[in-house]
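Q: Convert this sequence to structure tokens.
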Amino acid sequence: MGGSQPLGFGLGLILGGIFASTIGWQWGFYTAAITNLVMFVLSAWQLPRNLQDTSQDWWHRLINDIDWVGAILASVALAMLSYVITAITGSPSAMRQPTNICLLILSFALFLAFVVWVGRQERIGRPALIPNSLWRHKVFSCTCICVFCIWASFNIFEQYLNFFFQEVQKISPLGAAIRFIPAPISGALTNVVVGFIVHRVRGDWIVISTSIPTVVASVLMAIADPKWSYWACAFVANFFNPIGADGIFTVSNLLITSMFPPKTQGVAGGVFNTVSQTGKNVGLALSALIANKVTAHSPSVDKHSPDALLAGYRAAFWFCAGLTGVSLCISIWGLRNIGKVGQKKD
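A:
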């Protein structure tokens, strides 16, 4: 299952480059909409139904078995926080605006209200969107932090590598897409290798060993010279970058199934995916803020010149290296006793 992600990612990049160079970038979104519609129809047709539930049972479960209040609190808080981060990306001085200050304070207040609410729901035995008890598992909490950092770093790297190709080296969208081909190949190979060794090697060793190449990838691009050959640096970095994300993906999913009972695995898996997506959004916003700030203070007169942009991109790559380094340190400390996670338990 994990191997399909990098393959889909690579195919999407190549098609995006082809569309941008031929019929228009809009067709990337049209294709995504068509593909999602097809997946929706296939899911509705093929996914098994619970034949024991009547129509009344279904509506009753929809109303009573979902923590709607918690979902609204968390969604509104995340939306406000994302808006503020996006607003200050282009101009950090925007943080002084009363609207952004109020939204930031309100988002933190809603996060606090969410924590109180799910705690109350858990105490009275009602459905909680993210039960507070999940975070008492040290391994699960550390895994979520690692996933947050790794996913943030992975997406930042891919975005700024694309900027490096197109804005600094002036390569066409199709040419840039072709240069990303090593990434899905590396991701697929990582999933295959991890699948073969996960029941033989300790899980923390897998996470640590797959995180190191990701750190190296970010450092390579942080020191890369646009005049260098693609094969000298960008190829190696592009090949190394997905290894950490795909390695921790497999281990984390197996950890969730082994740490929690069946009734809690769905919630834990949902939290895992939410953390990864939040890491991506927050990471991209913070990296844009860092890159823009460094570019604005670069010695180049033209802040849109390749040299000025390169200074900001390098700062973003160093930020990637820092995020992956944090994940590496946490995995060394927090996952050291997880043992082998791929063994079948009778």
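The radius of gyration is 22 Å.
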